[in-house]
Automatic annotation (TrEMBL), chain A:
Species of provenance: Brassicogethes aeneus (Rape pollen beetle)
Domain of life: Eukaryota
InterPro entries: Trm112, Trm112-like
UniProt name for this protein: Multifunctional methyltransferase subunit TRM112-like protein
Classification of source organism: Eukaryota, Metazoa, Ecdysozoa, Arthropoda, Hexapoda
Keywords, alphabetical: Cytoplasm, Nucleus
Family membership: Belongs to the TRM112 family.
Subcellular location(s) of the protein: Cytoplasm, Perinuclear region; Nucleus, Nucleoplasm
GO cellular component, one term: perinuclear region of cytoplasm
UniProtKB/TrEMBL annotation, chain B:
GO BP terms in the entry: rRNA (guanine-N7)-methylation
The organism of origin for this protein: Brassicogethes aeneus (Rape pollen beetle)
Family note: Belongs to the class I-like SAM-binding methyltransferase superfamily. BUD23/WBSCR22 family.
Keywords from the UniProt entry: Cytoplasm, Methyltransferase, Nucleus, S-adenosyl-L-methionine, Transferase
Role this protein plays: S-adenosyl-L-methionine-dependent methyltransferase that specifically methylates the N(7) position of a guanine in 18S rRNA. Requires the methyltransferase adapter protein TRM112 for full rRNA methyltransferase activity. Involved in the pre-rRNA processing steps leading to small-subunit rRNA production independently of its RNA-modifying catalytic activity. Important for biogenesis end export of the 40S ribosomal subunit independent on its methyltransferase activity. Locus-specific steroid receptor coactivator.
Name assigned to this protein: 18S rRNA (guanine-N(7))-methyltransferase
Region (Disordered): 227-274
């Protein structure tokens, strides 16, 4: 699971969960892959990204690598910043670990890079 | 037509064997790719702009590969672990999620610029467990899908409805969830090439895109002017035309019969007032 997906993932489909965002990550295995840098896409997706959640997620998997704590203003033209965000969003991949719902503490296991978001009958 | 929905629930039907079949059978791949391309066409995404898309029932990522080729970034969700493992093996670029569409789309509001789904929606119409209620599951799916799409985004879902009732059920639940749109049927006169696309719009009611293969009506033969043109070439005028009337009057005059003089009114159609 890439962090871009994590930044949009929520556990609000569960019964009794209102926001369900951001999910906590406890990663046991993280992979860094090479992905082509597309500044246009990163600049566009930044409008939707919840930056504090991205920062916390990157920190929790231990790959912070000088990602600024605050979002840079006028990031559209700041290629240096966009590259860092691109690295965090698309190149970091959690292979094994768990996602934890912030409200109920329910754990969603991640195996082979695929988070299991299936719910049981009594959780719907 | 065989319906895998009757055999077993999707997470069981798409086991390792079936998943392998999906990626090794070139006919299945061709059809999936064609339908994916058509679905993207129906999405009407802005040109030359990489978009963030959701693929519902992505399976082994055949449709996702088409999205990649168009330069988009995608996230796929599927209920079958085996299919997703094949997708990982194929090294698709999109991110994958093991999730049941009937339990809703687990994303924040306004996440995606569009959503596609190829041959997945019909699975929702079945009740595979005692806790499954198709109507509720469809509504949950459509309402959460509506929430996770950005404004004016579209969702195109290709599916195989079993009958009219099923189509009605699916469409009515989508409209109840707030979507506009309807079903586009490509090649309606062909048994094999006929494909149903549920085109859903969030930003207001817009005319549905035109279906493919509807130009020629298979129930009748279309009219051609070929014979008329041939007749003209032989030197005879088209019957009831002005030329034909003039020629006829000329013949009568030659026979010495009483004939009205030609005028600008000869052979002219009556105006609509009569």
């Amino acid at each position: 699971m890439k962090l871009i997906t994590h930044n949009f993932l929520s556990s609000k489909c569960m019964k009794g969960v209102n926001v369900g965002f951001p999910l906590k990550i406890s990663a046991s295995d993280v992979k860094v892959t090479e992905v082509d840098f597309n500044p246009e896409f990163v600049a566009r997706i930044m409008q939707k990204i919840d930056y504090p959640a991205l920062y916390t997620a990157t920190e929790s998997i231990g790959h912070l690598e000088d990602l600024p704590k605050q979002m840079v203003e006028n990031y559209e033209n700041d290629e240096h910043f966009l590259k860092k965000v691109h690295h965090a969003l698309l190149q970091l991949e959690v292979i094994n670990g768990e996602l934890i719902c912030p409200e109920t503490g329910r754990k969603f296991p991640i195996t082979n890079g695929i988070p299991n978001m299936l719910l049981n009958e009594d959780e719907i | 037509m065989s319906r895998p929905e009757y055999l077993a629930p999707p997470e069981i039907f798409y086991n390792d064997d079936e998943a392998r079949k999906y990626t090794s059978n070139s006919r299945i791949i061709d059809i999936q790719v064609q339908m994916s391309e058509r679905a993207i066409e129906l999405l009407l995404l802005p040109d030359d702009q990489p978009c963030f898309l959701l693929d519902i029932g992505c399976g082994s990522g055949l449709s996702g590969s088409v999205l990649e080729d168009e330069g988009h970034i995608w996230v796929g969700m599927d209920i079958s672990q085996s299919m997703l493992e094949i997708a990982v093996e194929r090294e698709v670029e999109g991110d994958l999620l093991l999730s049941d569409m009937g339990q809703g789309c687990p994303f924040r509001a306004g996440t995606f610029d569009g959503a596609v789904s190829i041959s997945a929606l019909q699975w929702l119409c079945n009740a595979d467990k005692t806790c499954h209620k198709p109507v509720q599951r469809l509504y949950k799916f459509f309402s959460t899908l509506y929430a996770c799409l950005s404004r004016s985004a579209r969702a195109v879902l290709q599916f195989y409805p079993e009958n009219c009732d099923q189509m009605e059920l699916v469409t009515s639940q989508a409209m109840k969830a707030g979507f506009f749109g309807g079903v586009v049927v490509d090649y309606p006169n062909s048994t094999k090439a006929k494909k149903y696309f549920l085109v859903l719009m969030t930003g207001g009611n817009m005319p549905l895109p035109k279906a493919l293969g509807t130009e020629q009506d298979a129930n009748g033969v279309s009219y051609t002017t070929k014979r008329d043109r041939l007749k003209q070439a032989r030197g005879k005028s088209v019957k009831k035309s002005r030329n034909w009337i003039l020629e006829k009057k000329e013949r009568r005059r030659k026979q010495g019969k009483d004939t009205r003089a030609d005028s600008k009114y000869t052979g002219r159609k009556r105006s609509g007032r009569f």
